Amino acid sequence: xxxxxxxxxxxxxxxxxxxxxxxxxxxxxxxxxxxxxxxxxxxxxxxxxxxxxxxxxxxxxxxxxxxxxxxxxxxxxxxxxxxxxxxxxxxxxxxxxxxxxxxxxxxxxxxxxxxxxxxxxxxxxxxxxxxxxxxxxxxxxxxxxxxxxxxxxxxxxxxxxxxxxxxxxxxxxxxxxxxxxxx
Length: 183
Description:
Elements: E1 7-12, H1 17-38, E2 43-44, E3 49-50, H2 59-79, E4 83-89, E5 93-98, E6 105-108, E7 112-119, E8 129-134, E9 137-141, E10 146-152, E11 157-162, H3 165-182
Parallel strand pairs: 9-11
Antiparallel strand pairs: 1-4, 2-3, 4-5, 5-6, 7-10, 8-9, 10-11
Helix pairs in contact: 1-2
């Protein structure tokens, strides 16, 4: 028997700003090192001095830097298609699926005491997390500016990052009140 999915959201790992910035910095370093290996002349400004290439002029070193930089960019593009988290809301529960070997998490809506919608602080670099337990708070985040916070009877709090916090909040609030009336 399959239940009807009321809400579904997929979040991909390649869209996380922290990961994108980190990979772009590494790729930039590789391309700068490639340029430096191809143009080994010393550079001197009043505040900055870059000596000539330290290893002499090996022919293959620059090509390795270029290939590693290109490999980093290709991996970044491929990560745009890697599913990090999959949020599905059913009538009585929420199912959170991760990628590869992560554990599927099912949250019962009947045991929710409090629900709230909020926004993350304006921080550009926020790491992707899936099922991260810390201080009685369990976090799920890939990318987005908003999250839904569910507090349970036992004191556990679940923070679920989402791209559409208003839509998810209203649907969950409706489902929680419906499941409370069924008790």
